[in-house]
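BACKBONE STRUCTURE TOKENS:
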Amino acid sequence: MTSAKGVKKWVRTICRPIVEGGRVVRVRGSIQDITDRKRAETEIRQLNAELEQRVRARTAELEAANRELESFSYSVSHDLRAPIRHIAGFTNIVREACGAGLPEEARGHLELIAKAALRMGQLVDDLLAFSRLGRQAVRRQTVDPRHLVEECLRETVPPAERHRIETRVGDLPACAADPGLIRQVWLNLLSNAIKYSYGREPARIEVGATLGPDGPEYYVRDNGVGFDMRYAHKLFGVFQRLHRAEEFEGTGIGLALVQRIVHRHGGRVWAVSEPGRGATFFFTIGHPS
């Protein structure tokens, strides 16, 4: 309605007819000024429209960034792997061509080159896996962790080494997870446990689960070299290592992969340790949303 001063206002009218002798003789009601409320509703609609526009713009930016990352991954895969293959290939050619005539010192240099090329190739593969993981969909289904653990142990413990490694697998409750991704978690944790307990007689690897406030807390425990808890915050960073590469091989990406996979499932991962007394790595799997 329009006021006497020509100002347009929103009003809410409530009225009730008064009937006498079968006829409506008057109307009783009230008129409420709701101009402020309508103005607020209009502002909210405008803000929602602006927010939706921002979301669309941000989504487009993320999609463009993902395409660029995909292109970068392809470039890394093609442009870096090819030179690495050439280095390894020509190293073998030189060794085979020279045969027994190759001086021992030169043979040692070629061996170092071949090992460096192999490590660089593994580093490129791990970086690509870490990059792709952020875009890979998590397809949950019921998973039997014990089956995955036993499979990973067969893969990581060579038959010739099984006599020196004691493994114990406890009860592992089923969980809803992506089988391929969660297998990678077990594989990395078990590989680390075996690697860092090398030299122990015997090496002991224990796998199990305890019940925590958010469900099962799975763990992998070893009796290896352990680490200082003061540096635990570095464990899951890319390229972060708590031991020298000369002591233990690796690219420094395995635990970063573990953390990213666990976080993609809505879970947590952490570790407790003491130098010389082994380490225990725990992780949880979040509930499906």
